[in-house]
Amino acid sequence: MQENRTRYPGYDILNEKEHWDEHTWEIVLKRLGPFPKYKFLNDNEAKMIFTIAQHIVYDNRNEILDFVLYHIDSTLTSPIGEDQRKVGTPEQKVLVREGLKAIDKLAKKQYGARFLETDVQQQLSILAAVQKGKAVPMDEWQTIPQKELFKKLATQITSAYYSHPTVWSEIGYGGPAYPRGYVRVERGLTDPWEAKRDANES
Fold it and tell me: For position 117, what pLDDT does the model report?
């Protein structure tokens, strides 16, 4: 994995916390852990999502991926419904749980081992096939749409990943603007507290 991931050395969004209100700081602080036990995911499901997340975001830092898992588990246990769902696609709780079982079965069928027991290239091959909707035919795919399964996992993983404060710092995101707000809104200008690229960097 890439060690130097940031394009903004020395920038830490948490240095701006004094400008956030208490509610905002509380929300951001929870993303740093520690996290409670999973309410929905079992151990195998959590390990599978952790591994899939490593492949999707190309990152293996536990402190960030643990938050990704917490976020997904919280989403799957939340009483708040989904924004939208394609006809023929089961609710996300069923899609994720049964989808992970299907991926495990697919791994056994193709490589004779469960997903977590296969090597990286085999795992990537499985995920690529599911993403394209071209995985080896199985009865499970009649009720678990492959493309929707991959899309659901990828969307939840990336949305959680890019809401972690460490990743904010690395991509130069200035974090919550409330209650301070942005002042310099002209194109190409930044507020003093926003991340700045190295002037010598191309």
Answer: 97
